[in-house]
Amino acid sequence: MVRRLTVALAAGMITTISATAVVAQADVIKERQTLLKQFGDVTKPVGGMLRGNTAFDLATVQAALDAYAKNAKVLPTLFPEGSGTGDTEALPAIWQDKAKFDGLFGKLGTDAAAARVAITDEASFKANFPGVIRTCGTCHDSFRQKK
Questions:
Q1: The model's pTM
Q2: Which domains does the chain have, with CATH numbers?
């Protein structure tokens, strides 16, 4: 009787752990998608400024750079091994070359922090901001499925 109870408890724990892993994977995918969507949301108005379609606004630029620097620190942790399946555009290359992938986030964070200091007006914005978002393009080209 005790043995059956032990086996039943062990089976229940394994099922719970497996279910938790699937939920955790889904949660990490949603969390990274949320942060990456924030990148898109803060980049859109700044892109308009770069193209000359929107008036330059230093506060908007600084908010974008702050979001890049903050999220760049967190995002590498949101791509754990095994989180490449499901509702994600992440390519297997992320886990095949994790050092390069993580390095791009490190570069983005460093570049964003440096640009935050360097950008004081529209001229310095146009000189410094494109270099920051170039890293985004590198990551998209190498580690994200094409739509």
A1: 0.80
A2: 28-143 (1.20.120.10)
